[in-house]
Amino acid sequence: MSRRPLRRVSTVMVSLAAVALVAAACSSTPTAKKKADKTAASSTTTSTAPAPTTTAAPAPSTTAPAAAHTATTTPAKPTSTACSTSGGPLSATCDTQSPSFKLAGAGANSIQPFFTRVFYYYNQADKGVSVNYSPAGSSVGVTDIEQNTVNFGDSEIPIKTPASGTGGNILQVPVDLGGVALSYNLPGVGGGLKLDGPTLAGIYLGKITTWNNAAIAALNPGTNLPSTTIVPVRRADSSGPGYDLDQYLIDTGGSQWTGSVAGSAASTKWPITNIGIGEQLNTGVAGFIQQTAGAIGYVEYAYSLQAGFTNAALKNAAGSFVKPSQSAIAAAGAQASTLSASNFNIVNGPGAATYPLANFSWTLIYQKQSNTTQGIVAGKLFDWVTTTGQQQAAALGYSPLPANVVSLAHRTLLTLENSAGKALFTS
Amino acid sequence: MSTTLLEEVPPPRLTPVEGVKEGLQRRWARPGGRAYAVLRWSGATVFAVIVLGLVVSLLASASQAFGHSGLSFLWSGTYNATKDVYPTGIYIIGTLVTTAVAIIVAVPIGVGTAAFLSELAPTWLAAPLSVLIDLIAAVPSIVVGLWGLLVLSPAFAHHVEPFLKKIPVLEWFFHGLAYGPSMLLAGTVLAVMILPTIVALSRTALSSVATEDREAARALGATRWQVVRTAVIPSARTGIEAAVILAMGRALGETIAVALVIGNNNALPHSLLAPGATLGSAIINNFGEANPGLDKSSIIGLVVVLLAITALVNVGGQLLLRRRLRGQGAVT
After folding, report:
1. Which of A119, A228, A237, A293 registers the highest number of CB atoms within 10 A of its CB?
2. Mean pLDDT, to the nearest integer, of A186-197?
């Protein structure tokens, strides 16, 4: 008997809930976009895997003013008066007047320290623009932009040209110049241990197993090498640094490297997976090196610098042994006189002072921007990153882009279009 | 002994609550009842459709890889565009070994803790302690994984693993280089993750053992420990086994925490101290950047294998439990 009123109450509640649901469905249409934006933003934040602690710059602010959202829902008209014609000229003068927007990006883990800092400073100068960057790895950046799930991607290795995805043609903009360090943890041995291609290949093939191996000793006469076992560390995920080292070993490691499963075309996926330890992202590799005596691994130089690792001096194409440094990486970048997305390889470049493991990082963005506001904001942001933003590079272990690469970036960004195919910017 | 005593007491018979039958007959006559029935049935259908859709879409995506290498996919895996192999056999072994380590570590600790909580601990201690254990269940796996990588890994490399290598007989399991990331570390991290499941479910099973059983054992002169060992744990055995099976399901399928601490080495492990790889860790390491086509299909193939193993363990475990329950029903 006592169950009956209870059931009536529950029936009423169910029908009430149904009415509420229908009402919510009808009224939510105008706010749907807002919600979608929010979820997209939060998902990128949570997927931020082992985040390295950037020393100086705090993470970019994720709280955009409410104006950002209104701008999102009503695009097409940039609020700026100084840059009235479409996006106006793509120059630094319009920076602080660009319309508000919240950009979401994903990609290379290696560029994260640089992006974190430049996006922070850009946000300081222009509170309306904030960027949410998920450093999940270069290949994730490529997949995400191809499937059009982010506003921009970033990859240490450009996509094969002509690059396109579900949103059409993809522009590839060089945004930073970085190097890959071979860092090791060998108590009693300082930095600058000399290594060359065949020796490194031997280590990563599991043929050279102790630090006092004759091959290493021959390159380092006078160094007192311990008999510690070598623990080679590699990336468990695909990576730009892995691609660079693979390319270097293909160039210099001899047939023992190319003849094994490594093959003759460099791969972002590390070719030898049954030797040594695989760790996730630069952070994982760096963490393992820090903990393990005898470990050697490849990490983006910025991470190595931050962790204070000892780095190997690698034999370059000119035959000299060079440690990674800002100037040695800059020397590698200076060789790229004919850089383009299809001619991007600067590994093992010429020049006595050149560090052999270097690469440009490439931001990937659709040429045709369906949302004009987003296109204008992104264009101005990356133009700033490749010019004024480069001042931030040196302190973090990257090298500023050479002038010809800055101009390549500028030329590429100038081709951004709105949905009607009209150029967003005037030169 | 205690069961014979119980047999003499007839179990209380459940009397049907008044009005229930009447309500059943009138369900379709009342609009509210109809809405409720529709809601309930659509709920059930949605679940069936989701599970079926999941299996069918996974199989469809993996068909290219299965078609490429047939049954040999189960041990040698398949090739992708860059000539890289996914050695499924090694992943399966890694998955089973890490799960076994997790169970071996977690079951004694988990059941012991549950017994302590339900039998020995005073309330002022049991309540906060069980909250703490439940809190472990709420910790995201990435956090447990990072803790394993940053805290446990160095501790294992410098203390635990060198110590294990010195034990005479166990030496066979623990030899070779000790540098932290290993099958053993992955198993230990998994053990931490499945501990709350084992403790919570075993505790429920233990506390539902009849007080008469305990009292009977006590009356026969059993000590506190003997009561737990001879009367309580045997009666709660089915519940504890169910807990272990549920926990195994979680250990088999864990991805990111394992990927962080196992060392991701695709070689057949020669020792528990060697790095390895599991189905879950291989999937998470390779899926994000898989090339479309055979590469992606192979990884979805790994997902299918993982799903099959988990389903097998769960269904097998449930069948085992059901048979045991039926067996017990026949006795009492």
Report:
1. A237
2. 91
